[in-house]
């Protein structure tokens, strides 16, 4: 090897090492990603060529500006189109575990989730619920996730194989659809029956969504027990984590065991909201002092001064009827927790991209998405 080639290799290795000091993960609801002339849900819902080009450009612009390394996608109809699109942006690895439903050759229903990565996806699998446990919970023997869940094992720098799960839990939309055109009912009866369908159907959706989260968490714990690999869970949860339906995804109690065992097992097998880990990391940095006794902000140069960053306000990822809520999440295992002594990464940035929701410009955002995009930056701990 010549001196020149050795120098080039050293420079390349240094560049790679520098770029691998951080890892960016995003969850991205694409909102009806379907290439024309196909239609989504109903025959007249078809993007024009101009609209489709605009939608793809919007996606590319986001990826180019924010440069996530791993992305969990929801609402994917056109799988090959998305694969080609992200490949042009440097995502050589792309996986799905399902196909959308096609009716009448061109009407698409039941979109799927997908994952794209700059780092190698070394294995991919569909996560299936434990049916015996589902029946114990009072569910049917044919229970399934409303959208199939991906588990992609990605070779992440410094961590190695990491299990990344992408979900799109059942929506709050009623599971019961009433035929409003039934002529055998009076107008009043139709309204009353609609009310009944809404009450019962909404509760049915809640049961489905909560059951999906529960059975997925059981499978994640089982997988963690077998492999000890770090875990990332990302997606559109269609629910906040604070109202009880999905709160068990952040389980922090364990009864009838010693305190030492409780803390150790909860730490190893349970998940943490990336937002909370971000606040922990910020707090840790604020408490660090250098030799002169000043706050060390070196790892957070991209943020505002810590005094301005606290207290933090979490931005909504979805709006309905004028009210905003957080429906899109990234949950992480202890390997990304700055308070865990053996963690390699910490959450150094948490961003919700939402300008298309709160201040849209039609020429730019007319074919974007109805969700905010959540992006976390994970930095190697010094």
Automatic annotation (TrEMBL):
Output the Gene3D superfamilies linked to this UniProt entry.
Endonuclease/exonuclease/phosphatase
- InterPro entries, sorted: Endo/exonu/phosph_ase_sf, Endo/exonuclease/phosphatase, GPI-anchor_lipid_remodeler
Q: Does the keyword Hydrolase apply?
A: yes
Which segments constitute the Endonuclease/exonuclease/phosphatase domain?
27-333
Enumerate the GO terms in the molecular function aspect. Answer: endonuclease activity; exonuclease activity
Q: Which GO terms describe its biological process?
A: GPI anchor biosynthetic process
Q: Which UniProt keywords apply?
A: Endonuclease, Exonuclease, Hydrolase, Nuclease
Q: Which GO terms describe its cellular component?
A: membrane
Per the UniProt record, one Pfam family is Exo_endo_phos
Q: What is this protein called?
A: Endonuclease/exonuclease/phosphatase
Q: Which organism is it from?
A: Colwellia psychrerythraea
